[in-house]
Amino acid sequence: MPIAVPEYRDRLEAMTAEALEEYYAHSAGHKRAYEIAAIYERHADLSTLDQARALAEQDAPAELRRFAAEAYVGNGVKHLSEDIANTEAELTVAFDGEDVPYREVRPRITNEPDAGRRRDLHARRCAATEEHLNPMYEEAAELERELTSDLGAPTVLELYEGFGYDPRGLHAETSRYVAETDGLYREQVDAALRRRMGVALEDAALPDFSRLWRAPEFDTAFTTERAVPALRATLAGLGIDLDGQRNVELDIEARPGKRPRAFCAPIRVPARVVLVILPQGGQDDYQALFHEAGHAEHFAGVDPGLPAEQRLLGDNAVTEGFAFLFEHLVSDPAWLHGQLDFGPVDDYVRFNALQKLFFVRRYAAKLAYEIELHSGLALDSLPDRYAGHLSGAVGVPYPRGDYLEDVDGGFYCTCYLRAWAFEAQLRDHLRTAFGSDWFRRQAAGDLLRELWSLGQSLRADDLLRELTGEPIRFEVLADDARAALG
Ligand SMILES: [Zn+2]
């Protein structure tokens, strides 16, 4: 007997909490082995095919249907998910007489001043991905396609279109953005690479970009010790007492096995939200800390009375939007002057605008590629397509072998892309309503708390329309890039 909507809603919350607790413990280095299969087994009746079909037939809310479909697919690939995470955790890359843990290679590259050594490390990481991880990624991708067809959708793309996603519509907008910003991007990124790295775009390699964005030239302003105090002071300006928030936990110390990529684990919303970062030094750490703090404050502020799907699920462009709003503060001239010991800020503000242009173009290319990946094309045709899309948008060769590793499941790239535009419009609204130092106004904090309390009950488009009367307009991002860099 399939479970009815009210019970399903309650039970998915317990399963989500266990899955996120496991992800957090493994990824933060508290637990060596990643064990997700046991969690699927404990909640086996939430992830059956019958259950996913029954919710579809009952016309359950789209987010519950999506959860059930993702649980069915996730259950089918659970052993591969464990194998991938556990292989990655144990894998090392031989470099310079040392075995560098696979997960530490990327931060090593960002902190490596020598271009030859960066490229060598990058090539060794790519080879390890291809040899040790890709066989499992490929098996999982094939299996995901089979499980999707069990759910009655011909392709993963169509499955997500059935949940209200519109990757193809968004792609029409993002490809316009890529075309419109092409000249500006190439000219500005070439100048930045020449000036900061001593290499022209045409001679640059992907690991040079990792180093470019690490930007050690700004380290004297962005010291590691100042990061959390700056966050605490910023939140205080909005009327938030970080240390008094019992539902927000900061996991910021270094420990073996901790993943370098920052994340927020909303284990119980709003009762237990964990923010995890592993400082690597410099401005990047501040962006990561503030980004994750945006997620943490959003989830910690959700009305506990909302149904589970509006607190835990929903349109992740909303939470990414609040994360980008906080991340953007780090490059706001008024914030920089108020919080950090910064001389002239123009160089850093321009640098940051260029970094954003790079990331939006990179994600636009990921979307173009993922539409192909999820349209059911033969896997062996995909490495070239991946490298072609990414290299075209970014301007340097991309490794073909990253064609499955560099994908966040469930078209998550559409959430980031929509969130960038949502955030630009939300920020504009805050500046108009409260002034350019809106982040020092309690009233702006009150408005944010009101928005956060809604959780993800509204899609980002509807939330923005309620607030400003406007839809998400992707073209604001090209306008912003031209204004900042043109
Ligand atoms: Zn995020």
How would you characterize this protein structure?
The longest helix has 36 residues. It contains 21 helices and five strands. It has two domains: 160 residues, no CATH class; 318 residues, Neurolysin, domain 3, CATH 1.10.1370.30. Helix content is 64%, strand content 5%. It has a three-stranded mixed sheet with strand order 3-5-4. A two-stranded antiparallel ribbon has the order 1-2. Strand 1 and strand 2 form a beta hairpin. With 486 residues, it is mostly helical. Bound molecules: zinc ion. The site of zinc ion (ZN) has 4 residues, from helix 12 and helix 14.
Rounded Rg: 22 Å
Summed up, the domain count is 2
Just name the CATH architecture of the largest domain: Orthogonal Bundle
Bound molecules: zinc ion
Q: What characteristic shape results from the CA principal axes?
A: globular
SS element count, helices: 21
| Number of E-type strands | 5
| Beta-strand percentage range | under 5%
Poorly predicted sequence stretches spanning 5 or more consecutive residues: none
**Briefly, what CATH class of the largest domain?**
Mainly Alpha
The termini sit apart by 61 Å
Strand count, sense and barrel status of the largest sheet are: 3 strands, mixed
- What structural class should be given to the helix and strand makeup? mainly alpha
CATH topology of the largest domain: Neurolysin, domain 3
* Mean of all residue-level pLDDT scores: 96
Order of helices and strands: HHHHHEEHHHHHHEEEHHHHHHHHHH
Going across the biggest sheet, name each strand in turn: 3-5-4
- Specify the helix fraction band: 55-70%
